[in-house]
Amino acid sequence: MEKIPPELLIEIFNHLCGSAQSLRVNRQWFQHLMPIIWKAVDDRHLSNVTRGRRQMYASAIKSLRLTYRGPRIHEKLGRLEFPRLNTLISDQGLLDRLANQCRQLSRIELSRLAPGVTTEPILHLLDKCSSLERISLHGDVLSDQVIRRLAQLRKLRKLKVGHYIEHDTIDAANLESIPQPFPSIEKLTIEGSELSLLSLGKIATLVRKTKKLDASLGYDPNPALNQHPLVPLTELRELKIRAQMTDSLSPHDFVTLTALPQLEVLIIWAEPFHRSTPSWDDHIRYLASGLPNLKVFSLICGAIGTTAKSLIALGECCQSLEKCKIPAMEFNILDLQLLQAPLFPKLKELTTGTFVPERGLNEVPEKHAMIFASQFPELSCIGYYDVKSDPDRCDFTASVHEAWSNNRTAEGKPPLREMNYLLDMSFDERAYLQW
């Protein structure tokens, strides 16, 4: 072992990170492997260690997952020190003791509090651990006091909330009295809420510096017209929206999104509603015209119909687009033949519906493939969805794809990476997995 170079040993040990038995090989293996294997553990493993050796392992832990196991576990772990701990994943109330010992924490995840535990331990932890950079809160733990304390954390960069945020709770936090709430926030994720896009306005005024926003939307029967609530987010670069139904997204919402010309990533996922939604080609054209810097665009919803008009609008307005995913879009490639090529000079990944052949004509797949290749010269990955379960369109799409692949091979280009969704699952299952 002494003759093995140190860098090779480290590589070997990294591959053995899941094998606790490796600690027993010899003293050298134990010294090198212990910090790796014990870097991320849960309280069960630590509590099972004999009392005399427990602190040695606690000193190596960087990430600790706590599961509610009663006061006995609290007693065992509450006496330990965790000098290297920077991530705490907890679903119980051991927070008070750890707050005094782990002030270097940079990340915590709290899924729920133990029975009978209030939000006081969370407040105590937030007060003591001013170095926190990433926080994930799930369950009913967002009191107005917790929100106010979160807003005062100077280093907080990422905040994830998995519970409905009441507007009254935000008002009670009186964040307006804080000179600069959430001063370093870069990413905000709100799950479990059913907000309208417009109702995010109140939150937007509080997180003006965030670069990424991920939110769940519900239906707002009385949207306030002629307002642009996301305008305060002048540094927003990435927006992800989960809509509970297609009716949650209105044309006015698209007007709202055009107020973010700096946006680079826009991903919209909507659960299909019970009735068909008309084509959104006009809405997408309007949207694309206001987002010239878009690099990633994804619109996933089985009920939203789109055609080549949407594709053309994105190509003409969003010249920097690199990834595009519209599974419900089915189009005739011949609609692109009169456009100046390339329509998408930088697009590398495309997910679309099936190609539509011209009615009444004996279509030649090679012609479609040639036109498609000229409009998408940099494309290296493509996927197709058979939204309408049409075997003829599937066959035609496969023929065009084969002709296109053969042309690439003849030109010495690398083979396409394929994401073939034509046969495997229902649309909803596939769309959800790709979100």
Protein topology:
Layout (H helix, E strand, L loop, with lengths): L5 H10 L11 H11 L2 E3 H5 L3 H8 L4 E4 L4 H8 L8 E4 L4 H7 L5 E4 L9 H9 L5 E5 L5 H8 L6 E5 L4 H7 L13 E9 L5 H4 L7 E6 L20 E6 L7 H7 L7 E6 L10 H9 L6 E5 L7 H10 L5 E3 L23 E4 L12 H11 L5 E4 L6 H20 L6 E4 L6 H8 L1
Parallel strand pairs: 1-2, 2-3, 3-4, 4-5, 5-6, 6-7, 7-8, 8-9, 9-10, 10-11, 11-12, 12-13, 13-14, 14-15
Helix pairs in contact: 6-7, 7-8, 8-9, 11-12, 12-13, 14-15
Main traits of this protein?
alpha/beta; disordered C terminus; F-box domain-containing protein; LRR_dom_sf
Structural class: alpha/beta
Biggest sheet, open or closed, and with what strands and sense? 15 strands, parallel
Question: Count the strands?
Answer: 15
Task: Indicate the CATH class of the domain at 264-435.
Answer: Alpha Beta
Share in helix = 25-40%
Shape: elongated
Mean pLDDT over all positions: 77
Strand content: 15-25%
Instruction: Fill in the CATH topology of the domain at 264-435.
Output: Leucine-rich repeat, LRR (right-handed beta-alpha superhelix)
Query: Roughly how many Å is the radius of gyration?
Result: 27 Å
Q: State the end-to-end distance.
A: 47 Å
User: Total number of helical segments?
Assistant: 16
Low-confidence runs: 15-24, 422-435
State the CATH architecture of the domain at 264-435.
Alpha-Beta Horseshoe
Protein name: F-box domain-containing protein
InterPro entries: LRR_dom_sf
GO biological process, one term: SCF-dependent proteasomal ubiquitin-dependent protein catabolic process
GO cellular component, one term: SCF ubiquitin ligase complex
